[in-house]
Amino acid sequence: MTKVEEIVSHLPMQPFNDPIPVGQLYFPDWRDYEQSMRGIFEREYYNNNGPLVTALEGQLKNFLNVKHAICVSNATHGLMIAAQAMELTGKVILPAHTFVASAQSLLWCGLTPVFCDVKKDGHHIDTTKLEALITEDVSAIMAVNLWGGAADLDALEKIASKHGMKLYFDSAQAFGCEYQGNKVGGFGDVEVFSLHATKVLSAGEGGLICTNNDELADKIRSIRPSYGTFEKVAINKVANSRMSEAQAAVALLNLKNYKDYQRNNENIYNLYSERLSCIPGISIVNPEGVTLSNFQSLVCSVDEEKFGCSRDDLLNILKHFSVLARRYFYPGVHKTVDFVQYGYELPNTDHLSCATLQLPIGAQTGKDVVMSICDIIEQTHLKSQHVDLL
Q1: Which helix (H) or strand (E) holds 72?
Q2: Any alpha helices (H) in 226-343, and if so which ranges?
Q3: Biological process (GO) annotations (predicted)?
Q4: How far apart (Å, rounded) are the C-alpha atoms in residues 82 and 43?
Q5: What is the pLDDT of residues 159-181, one digit of tens each?
Q6: Which end of the chain is more exposed for a tag (fewer CB within 10 A), N or C?
Q7: In CATH terms, is domain 3-26+257-388 a member of 3.90.1150.10?
Q8: Is the preceding omega at residue 347 within 30 degrees of 0, hence cis?
């Protein structure tokens, strides 16, 4: 019998009847959505920058206090379009502690990722290590804002300005967050958000590109549709990355409820924090660098020596009870199949990839669910001490 099996055999609780996912899965009231869909069918206008997409872009522009908010089919396309619009060449520096799509978006554009380690005491790019990576063929920095937090935006903008480089952000997880009182969305040259089902603001699937640069906005809008070469800005490539009216309908309704979703996430976060702070070896990752978080994610770090079992053992125990926790981001992007050959040594990223665990938060995670998940984690710690003595 393995250690995981031994611990599970000693735990008194039963699995959840339905799996508990990590993602948000906030969705509007069906009656409101049905009314929106009826309007779409009556207008017979389903795509191609329709009235709902136009309305959504206007509301998002005002919400984020940016000049241009441009909806696309998903955030990965958003990153690709942003790189193309900025006419990036050569290499782009980014952290390896991120979702693999951040780096893959560069490969699709013929660019080469250069990976930077994250801070020893955090999850965002270490700005003190950036300048050593800047060479003549590096054209941009792509920073990533994680877990409802933000990187050191001031330091990043200073470095990019000093070296005459483009700076853009994968802000997939940062919608609604504030940095020094300003909404994330208007920093650097471009920011890209995800409107995926697992995000606080969801379109079911979708993405959002924000910029305060009029010329870049024109290029992005020309690249977005498949016929963009006929638009007023000359471009070399196009991408069929238009958001549908159905996606926009979901996002518009969810935007009305965003503050409720954010408050619910914060309450869930506080419940977890209160319970898990008492368990040796479990540390909650607080949202970094922001004055207001969306509490997009509930992430903790597992210290195997203090907790009694590894992060992966705890992950498998939670899965036994139908808690679909995730190990984000494992492995670090620098060790995935496309990049492992380059032999990057990023000790802080490697440590996080082996210790970080994401727990459920969002629409399906009420107080009783949180308490039950924390009970499983607490009992796992207690029983692991017993198993080690056998």
Answers
A1: strand 68-72
A2: 245-256, 258-276, 304-307, 311-320
A3: polysaccharide biosynthetic process
A4: 31
A5: 999 999 999 999 999 999 999 99
A6: C
A7: yes
A8: no
Entry field: residues in the chain: 390
Instruction: Give per-residue pLDDT as tens, 2-24.
Output: 989 899 988 989 999 999 999 88
Q: CB under 8 Å to 178, separation ≥6 — which residues?
A: 184, 290, 291, 292
User: In the chain, where does the domain assigned CATH 3.90.1150.10 lie?
Assistant: 3-26+257-388
Which is the catalytic residue, given 199, 219, 335, 383? 199
**CA separation for the pair 170, 99 (Å, rounded):** 10
The fold of 30-253 is Aspartate Aminotransferase; domain 2 (3.40.640)
Residue for token pair 């607490």: 378
> What are 226-235's pLDDT values in tens digits?
766 556 677 7
Neighbours of 131 (CB within 10 A): 11
User: Alpha carbon 334 to chain centroid distance?
Assistant: 18
Kindly give, in sequence order, each residue whose CB lies less than 8 Å from that of residue 204, ignoring residues fewer than 6 positions away.
27, 195, 197, 246, 247, 250
Strands 166-170 and 190-194: parallel
Residue 367 catalytic? no
